[in-house]
Fold this protein.
Amino acid sequence: MPKEQLRYDRMVETALRGVVRDALTEVAERGLPGNHHFYLTFRTGYPGVEIPDYLAAQYPNEMTIVLQFQYYGLDITDDHFEVTLSFNNVHERLVIPFAAITTFADPSVNFALQFHPLTAESAEVATMPPRPAAERVEEKAEESAAPVEEPKRGEVVALDAFRKK
C-alpha cells in the first residue's frame, strides 16, 4: 500500500483559485477599480463550460476573455462565474467553472496566476466543503485503487519572487 501524503499542490491550487473567485466577487459587487482589468484563459471543453457553439468551434481548446469595459451581469458562485460579453456586437452569456481556468492576469498591477489543469474529479474535490476526516480517508482509499493521471505542463510558477526578504 503506497504511503499517503498531503496534497499541498492541490491545496495551493484551490487557494489560488479562491483568489480569482474573490477578485471577481469584488468586481461583481463594486465594479473594476482604477485601471484594473482581467484576462481569463479557460479550457473551452471543460465540463460545465457553456459558450456558444461558434466560439467553441473557433476555440476548441482554450479561449481568453477580457473583463474591462464592456461586460454585463457578472455573477459568481462557489464553483463558477457567469458573464455576458459582446462578440461581433452580439451579447453572449458565458458560464465558466473556476476549475476550467488556466490563467488569470491583471496587467494593470503586473499580477498573474497560472493553474495546472484540473480533472473534473479533482475540481469537485477542490470545491467541496470540509468533511470529517473519516469520510476523507474512505474516499482516499477508493481513489488510490484507480489513480487518475492529470496532464503535465512544463511551466511552474515560483512564489519566491513574491516573498519579502
